[in-house]
């Protein structure tokens, strides 16, 4: 579909991508695939998944202390990491600051903007990933990605 001179994805593609991120096998394959495209993209997949787990936790009505621990874990891992760079995912610094300011709010939406940013960023690689894996048996996908990663590493070294 063509809207305002930008290509807009169909909702079925977006739903398929969301389902893929929720499927451990496909998500792992996709995570390996995007790790070859950029340093923080792999973390983006992990962040998206952890935020989904966090939202599930919120909706399960568990105690506030558990919810707060999950918020802290996500922030310490992806938003304000002790390992440089502090921001381990590809979101604007303003979004990261907003999350840090709201870290004591216990709602399912604290990470919403960041999760949407990451989803949109990762979605750009979805069609390429689908094309890549369409030529391979599912048990050969990770092997093929490992080979690609090896070639990329050798290029860096050589």
TrEMBL record:
SMART domains named in the record: RGS
Gene Ontology cellular-component terms listed: cytoplasm; nucleus
GO biological process: regulation of signal transduction
Gene3D superfamilies for the chain: Regulator of G-protein Signalling 4, domain 2
InterPro entries reported for this sequence: RGS, Rgs22, RGS22_RGS_fourth, RGS_sf, RGS_subdomain_2
Source taxon at top rank: Eukaryota
Stretches assigned to the RGS domain: 16-122
CDD domains, per the entry: RGS_RGS22_4 (cd08725)
GO MF: G-protein alpha-subunit binding
Pfam family, one: RGS
Database matches in PROSITE patterns: RGS (PS50132)
PANTHER family given in the database record: REGULATOR OF G-PROTEIN SIGNALING 22
The protein, known as: Regulator of G-protein signaling 22
Phylogenetic classification of the source organism: Eukaryota, Metazoa, Chordata, Craniata, Vertebrata
């Amino acid at each position: 579909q063509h809207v305002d001179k930008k290509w807009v994805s169909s909702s079925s593609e977006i739903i398929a991508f969301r389902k893929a991120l929720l499927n451990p096998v496909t998500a792992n394959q996709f995570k390996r695939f995007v790790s070859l495209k950029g340093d923080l993209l792999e973390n983006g997949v992990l962040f998206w998944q952890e935020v989904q787990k966090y939202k599930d936790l919120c909706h399960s009505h568990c105690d506030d202390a558990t919810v707060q621990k999950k918020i802290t874990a996500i922030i310490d891992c992806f938003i304000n990491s002790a390992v440089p760079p502090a921001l381990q995912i590809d979101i604007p610094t303003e979004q990261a600051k907003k999350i840090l300011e709201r870290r004591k709010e216990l709602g399912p939406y604290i990470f919403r903007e960041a999760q949407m940013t990451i989803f949109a960023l990762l979605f750009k690689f979805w069609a390429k990933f689908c094309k890549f894996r369409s030529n391979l048996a599912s048990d050969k996908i990770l092997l093929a990605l490992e080979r690609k990663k090896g070639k990329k590493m050798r290029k860096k070294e050589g």
